[in-house]
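In response to the reviewer comment on reproducibility (Comment 2.3), we provide here a single inverse folding case reported in full, input and output, so that an independent group could reproduce the run without further information from us. The structure tokens appear first.
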């Protein structure tokens, strides 16, 4: 079952999962592309909102709040009120729930020809979703998730796209309040040069 973060973020999920425990680190597959002019410094920014964002301002605000730390760590500063920003930053995010085969798990035991119960309660110690039948009776499973964020930075005067990045990760956690800042951090890790190799792995420590 896919859950598109509409228009870009599942705000309800974000608020419900704010109290989830820290994940420690988030490993992401990142693709980043740059046309950032040599010698140009990061300057003032504003977040661009498409009509779909404007129709859901609370969700858009939550997404911007999740990205703000990564944007400013890249060197950008918020544009002062009434002063034109140097760049506009467009954000996107998606959370998809995925069905996972129990045979993806290396930690299974039992006689051949049967469904086995996971020693570690799921793949590499992470729980699955749903129910399956194990040697000791029905076992509670938990879902896997595919998480993705996107960042596009445009020059405000010309409208030219100067930097584009996507960060994707998978796991059994859907704690968006913890994951989204880490994913945006991964997406902007290569700024302003962009990735020398795409996709490439980026590891970001979580802040919660």
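Designed residues, in position order:
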């Amino acid at each position: 079952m896919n859950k598109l973060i509409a228009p870009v973020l599942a705000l309800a999920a974000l608020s419900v999962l704010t109290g989830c425990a820290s994940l420690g680190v988030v490993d992401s597959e990142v693709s980043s592309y740059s046309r950032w002019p040599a010698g140009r410094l990061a300057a003032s920014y504003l977040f661009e909102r498409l009509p779909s964002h404007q129709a859901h301002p609370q969700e858009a605000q939550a997404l911007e709040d999740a990205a703000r730390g990564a944007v400013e760590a890249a060197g950008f500063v918020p544009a002062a009120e009434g002063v034109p920003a140097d760049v506009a930053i467009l954000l996107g995010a998606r959370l998809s729930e995925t069905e996972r085969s129990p045979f993806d798990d290396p930690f299974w035991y039992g006689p051949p020809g049967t469904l086995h119960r996971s020693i570690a309660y799921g793949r590499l110690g992470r729980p699955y979703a749903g129910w399956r039948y194990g040697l000791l009776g029905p076992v509670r499973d938990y879902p896997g998730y595919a998480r993705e964020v996107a960042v596009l930075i445009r020059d405000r005067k010309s409208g030219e796209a100067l930097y584009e990045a996507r960060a994707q990760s998978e796991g059994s956690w859907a704690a968006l309040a913890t994951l989204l800042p880490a994913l945006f951090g991964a997406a902007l890790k290569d700024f302003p040069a962009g990735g020398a190799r795409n996709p490439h792995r980026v590891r970001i420590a979580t802040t919660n």
